[in-house]
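Q: RuvB-like helicase, please. Structure only.
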Amino acid sequence: MPKGDVHKKKEVVQDVSLHDLDVANARPQGGQDIFSMMNQIAKPKKTEITEKLRMEINKVVSKYIDQGVAELVPGVLFVDEVHMLDLECFTYLNRALESTLSPIVIFATNRGMCTVRGADIVSPHGIPVDLLDRLLIIRTEPYSVEEMAQVIALRAK
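A: Structure for RuvB-like helicase:
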């Protein structure tokens, strides 16, 4: 055991996503250090990430956050053409959004009233009403001719 004063102290900060943790734990191979984890990520092999594994990872991450060892930085999930998803996808997303580890989700669509795929339900934007009630809808309008001229003038400078 070394003795004496510490002359240099180094703090290591690394960004690790939940997916990185899932992949590293789905096929554990050897050491628990960062190099072993990075080696597993560098050589990806298709492995299913089970619900049990997801729950275990969530418990560990929650424990680290409570201890102050880790900090949660939510990501952003952007889903374009959201009206193309089926009822099963919406059910999964609705459940996933309830998690404390869920990302910020942005849905985009250009549809008004249309049928939800996988069901005979007509709903605004093709999104089931139970999920739609939890969303903030932001309407966008096309640029006017004057606004387009302003944008072009700014870009031309």
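A: Brief note, in case it's useful. The chain is about 40% helix and 10% strand.
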